[in-house]
Design goal:
692 residues, alpha+beta, PH-domain like, 17 helices, 25% strand, lipid-binding
Length: 692
């Protein structure tokens, strides 16, 4: 085969980023080489990858990027000018890789079967092997084709035991590396905070995590081949490390820390006045007439590449360990959205017309219709609530923080959105509600009220409540956010549940929330949802099971969601759903009819909030105003100072309550059992038709 050559962009590191380089695929030697430019082609190459045993993977980030992962562990992340050029390079690289991998496999037959004890680390195979032995000749690594998978399946079981011992030895070496780095002085020519050493420390942790995932996959493949070949549609997914690393990172203690040295911050005089002294904790009646349509446009840009913040991220990663709870960790300010977590929960209600349409009065809608409509509303809420897949996080609410808002929905708009399960109409082109329409009074529109409060600091628990009194429906929820460090990603588990009450029907729908994952935190971060959630109505016997699929280890689509609505008594599936939670959803009903919901075209109803001057000092927008204004002006240092001021005040007040033995008193929510309930829920004011 003739050689392939041309310019590609190569990702170098966090500092340099992407650079154009001239690449040459040497088919005869099985090498991928690159040069600074075409003119220096006759000189020594800047870099060379051995393709035997390599894996060539198109990236899901875009249609131009792909990676070349050599058997030695070295990786090239490359980007072509378009999808066609990427396919050309990927195809030629895969052909060359397969040819040279099979050649090595013929020349290096598998090792003889041997048994090794996992406890005998002193006599492990890795300590007996010559340092100069080629890794490629030892690992008979094949290309990801069915033929090579079958070759691996024929390996004796104790070959995996040998690999496990080698990985155990590698984990020991990695522990030694971490200890040596941490024993260095904090300052001087070579310090423990040297950026290159921090990078080495962080990436070595992620590497061991990845190797453990790969080993787990090999075990699954070997076990499946003992019973029979893997089916063609099988995908192997991963969320967290399958084999946790040892708990040895002494810097990972569960203590609050900041990403930079603390320094005194000047607090504006008026802020000191309004924040001093005890605040009234009595519930406040918010009049909907005081609220006006929200004109604040806090549009979020994606983080993109994070090269400019590399020192902040590396310093943060150096103090984390796998599985560490991030509740007390102060994350860098530049990754923050310009809204509080409490307001994010409100943004999950950005389609109030679909929320109100769940119940269509005592006549004309069945229990099956109501369950299906709730699932439709539930799945459409995440796109706006999560702002697509932008990899930023909202402010962590401080204890006592509240957020109030409401929505006005014309009754004609709700009527047009109530679509029975026998219809093929798509919810795609709702026109935005005009100010003239929203200004109608009395019975011309429905009002949906929302209130949220941070009821606990440790653990961080938020309560939120929404109601439409005229439709006799309300939802009450409490959520505890638990964040964990997973190597090169961060996982957030939403612990808690919500209950939707339809008082006209005496029905309660209990639901849970999916997990969220921030991936690729060292390069170009992105967010995905994952996990299984359920919706249950005990009275009607209907339930829904929904799965948010994370990106499989091999292949697969991003942001995929599937689910089904079932009548438990008859074990009948009445509706199935599939698609992407931030794009298009497809609902298929038991009668064969189908409905599509295009979330990118689904109109968002703007919430109504009180002006800042009328808000309580602890309401989210007023509380975080200085941080939000600084982020909007891209003044990260100033935003960090304001944020630290709020957090330090919270710690001071918490210490004072602890010293005086004063319990915290919530404002709107009351603790009942393990949950939190709004103090004046609709079901206490309006009797239900038939109590659930």
């Amino acid at each position: 085969m003739e050689n392939v050559y041309g310019y590609l962009m190569k990702y170098t590191n966090l500092v340099t980023g992407w650079q154009y380089r001239f690449f040459v695929l040497n088919n005869e030697a099985g090498l991928l080489e690159y040069f600074v430019n075409e003119q220096s082609r006759n000189q020594k190459p800047r870099g060379t990858l051995q393709l035997a045993g390599a894996v060539i993977s198109p990236s899901d980030e875009d249609s131009h990027t792909f990676t070349v992962n050599a058997a030695s562990g070295e990786q090239y992340k490359l980007r072509a000018t378009d999808a066609k050029e990427r396919q050309h390079w990927v195809s030629r690289l895969q052909i060359c890789t397969q040819h040279h991998t099979e050649a090595i496999g013929k020349n290096n037959p598998p090792l003889k079967s041997r048994s090794f004890s996992l406890a005998s680390s002193g006599n492990s195979p890795i300590s007996q092997r010559r340092p100069s032995q080629n890794a490629i000749s030892f690992f008979n690594v094949g290309h990801s084709k069915l033929q090579s998978v079958n070759k691996r399946a024929n390996l004796p079981p104790d070959h995996l035991v040998e690999v496990r011992e080698m990985m155990s030895h590698a984990e020991g070496q990695q522990r030694d590396l971490i200890r040596r780095i941490e024993c260095l002085p904090a300052s001087g020519h070579l310090s423990s905070l040297d950026q290159d050493l921090l990078m080495l420390k962080a990436t070595s942790m992620a590497t061991m995590n990845c190797l453990n995932d790969c080993f787990h996959i090999l075990q699954l493949q070997h076990a499946s081949h003992q019973k029979g070949s893997l089916s063609s549609g099988t995908t192997i997914e991963w969320l967290e490390p399958k084999i946790p690393l040892s708990n040895h990172y002494k810097n990972g203690a569960d203590q609050p820390f900041a990403t930079e040295q603390s320094k005194p911050v000047a607090v504006p005089e008026e802020q000191c006045v309004e924040e001093s002294g005890p605040l009234a904790r009595e519930p406040e009646e918010i009049s909907a007439d005081d609220e006006v349509e929200d004109t604040c446009d806090n549009k979020e840009d994606d983080l993109g590449a994070v090269e400019e913040q590399r020192s902040v991220i590396l310093h943060l990663l150096s103090q984390l360990k796998l599985g560490m709870d991030l509740t007390r960790v102060v994350l860098p300010t530049f990754i923050l959205e310009k809204r509080s977590l409490l307001e994010m929960y409100a943004d999950f209600m950005s389609h109030p017309d679909l929320f109100i349409a769940i119940t269509n009065g005592t006549n004309g809608a069945t229990a099956e219709d109501r369950m299906i409509r709730f699932v439709e509303y539930y799945l459409t809420s995440f796109h706006e609530g999560r702002k697509g897949a932008i990899a930023k996080k909202p402010y962590n609410p401080i204890i006592g923080e509240t957020f109030h808002c409401s929505w006005r929905v014309p009754k004609s708009e709700v009527a047009s959105t109530v679509v029975s399960s026998s219809s093929t109409q798509a919810i795609t082109n709702h026109t935005p509600l005009s100010e003239e329409t929203l200004s109608q009074v009395g019975s011309d529109y429905y009002t949906v009220r929302f209130v949220a409060e941070q009821v606990s600091h440790h653990p961080p628990v938020s309560g939120f409540y929404a109601e439409c009194a005229e439709r006799k429906m309300c939802v009450n929820a409490h959520v505890w956010t638990k964040s964990k460090f997973l190597g090169m990603s961060i996982g957030v588990t939403m612990v808690g549940e919500g209950v939707l009450s339809l008082l006209e029907h005496g029905e309660e729908y209990t639901f849970s929330l999916p997990c969220a994952y921030a991936r690729s935190i060292l390069t170009v971060p992105w967010v995905e949802l994952g996990g299984k959630v359920s919706v249950n109505c005990a009275k009607t016997g209907y339930s829904a099971s929904i799965t948010f699929h994370t990106k499989p280890f091999y292949g697969g689509k991003l942001h995929r969601v599937t689910g089904e609505v079932k009548h438990n008594i008859t074990n009948t599936v009445v509706c199935r759903v599939q698609g992407e939670w931030n794009s298009v959803l497809e609902f298929t009903y038991s009668n064969g009819e189908t409905k599509y919901v295009d979330l990118t075209k689904l109109a968002v109803t703007k919430k109504r909030v009180r002006p800042l001057e009328k808000q309580d000092p602890f309401e989210s927008r007023r509380l975080w105003k200085n941080v939000t204004d600084s982020l909007r002006e891209s003044e990260i240092d100033k935003a960090t100072e304001h944020k630290r001021t709020l957090e330090e005040r919270q710690r001071t007040e918490e210490r004072h309550r602890t010293e005086t033995g004063t319990p915290w008193k919530t404002k709107y929510f009351i603790k009942e059992g393990d949950g939190w309930v709004y103090h004046k829920p609709l079901w206490k004011l309006i009797p239900t038709a038939q109590p659930a």
